[in-house]
């Protein structure tokens, strides 16, 4: 019998084009199905170890951390129901049932974002986007299906050129698209009507953590009085308020392999940066269209 490796399962889901957060939830679900714990406390400790393993995989840990934390929060929230279970076998059935329900609901998030952003893209718009975002791509694809005529500038998004992948995906669905240098954002900004970004995490104050360069894009847009719209799932809301980019955890900024290698981090490119909520206009989420100030209230409801 093969030993279950949650990291391998997680990477397999990523290859199947699942977002890191959803892949993490699915990996935790599979681990739960195979778990042999005999008490609730043993189970919780086991899941804690499984979450730690996920944090050491070479993907951006921001959404993985928020998604898995919210998943565990949801399945163990019904304390009274768990306490009334006759034995741990019954308790385990409750946990599995709640877990499956949660993952199913979270997989519907992008469809809800599409509904909340139905009228976001209008005919004749020129949009700037940064890097590759599944949500931005989905919203633009839906706008094409609705017959909207618009064009997009995409930053190439160094160091991994993820913007070029985004451009190919947009061109494949019929969106006129131009890849620009990251350094050309200021030059292009005066020509665009709006900026659309995804996010790997949304902080408690409404600021976002996203692909390196997002802060530059949003700050320049704010200076030029251009709206910045963020398309993001609520399971990426995190209980953290960075003071600035230097206060982001190293685990957010660098891949696990870089941290484990013991490299001089001053010489390494960070993966993400932090954008202050003052530079963002609205969040288009599965909860609806939210001002950045609404994130705090939502997190309070989730964790109290």
TrEMBL record:
Pfam families: IF-2B (PF01008). One of its GO terms (cellular component) is cytosol. The keyword Plastid does not apply. Signal peptide: none annotated. Its main location: cytoplasm. Keywords: Cytoplasm, Initiation factor, Protein biosynthesis. SUPFAM superfamilies: NagB/RpiA/CoA transferase-like. It is found in: Cytoplasm, Cytosol. It comes from the Eukaryota. One of its GO terms (molecular function) is guanyl-nucleotide exchange factor activity. InterPro entries: eIF2B_alpha/beta/delta (IPR051501), elF-2B_alpha_N (IPR042528), IF-2B-related (IPR000649), IF_2B-like_C (IPR042529), NagB/RpiA_transferase-like (IPR037171). Acts as a component of the translation initiation factor 2B (eIF2B) complex, which catalyzes the exchange of GDP for GTP on eukaryotic initiation factor 2 (eIF2) gamma subunit. Its guanine nucleotide exchange factor activity is repressed when bound to eIF2 complex phosphorylated on the alpha subunit, thereby limiting the amount of methionyl-initiator methionine tRNA available to the ribosome and consequently global translation is repressed. Belongs to the eIF-2B alpha/beta/delta subunits family. Component of the translation initiation factor 2B (eIF2B) complex which is a heterodecamer of two sets of five different subunits: alpha, beta, gamma, delta and epsilon. Subunits alpha, beta and delta comprise a regulatory subcomplex and subunits epsilon and gamma comprise a catalytic subcomplex. Within the complex, the hexameric regulatory complex resides at the center, with the two heterodimeric catalytic subcomplexes bound on opposite sides. This is Translation initiation factor eIF2B subunit alpha.
